[in-house]
Recover the amino acids of this structure.
């Protein structure tokens, strides 16, 4: 089972990533101004994982990746993969486990307390 991880970028904006059960990043969201909008983005992916458009691309250097698109909005962009088969496995992982994935929030400045 994968997990959604919310964290802050260096510029103070929020992002989420979806990681595989082994902890490897599958995709990363764009920046959000506030945490609530970021959580809403996670919710859209969780609820609509089977109905989201998964657009596949190939970089000029021969790497493969995909974008998650819902209602003409790019929700996330995957990491780069070496083969088209691995891209498909990444998409399959999202479809299979996003709806039941846990949400981890590491956006707080004080995660560990004394």
């Amino acid at each position: 089972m994968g997990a959604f991880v919310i964290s802050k970028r260096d510029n103070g904006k929020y992002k989420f990533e979806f990681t595989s059960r082994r902890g490897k990043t599958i995709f990363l969201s764009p920046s959000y101004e506030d945490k609530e909008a970021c959580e809403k983005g996670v919710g859209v992916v969780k609820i609509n994982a089977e109905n989201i458009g998964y657009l596949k691309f190939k970089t000029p250097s021969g790497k493969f990746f995909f974008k998650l698109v819902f209602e003409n909005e790019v929700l996330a962009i995957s990491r780069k993969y070496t083969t088209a088969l691995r891209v498909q496995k990444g998409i399959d992982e999202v479809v299979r486990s996003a709806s039941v994935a846990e949400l981890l929030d590491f956006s707080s400045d004080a995660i560990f307390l004394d």
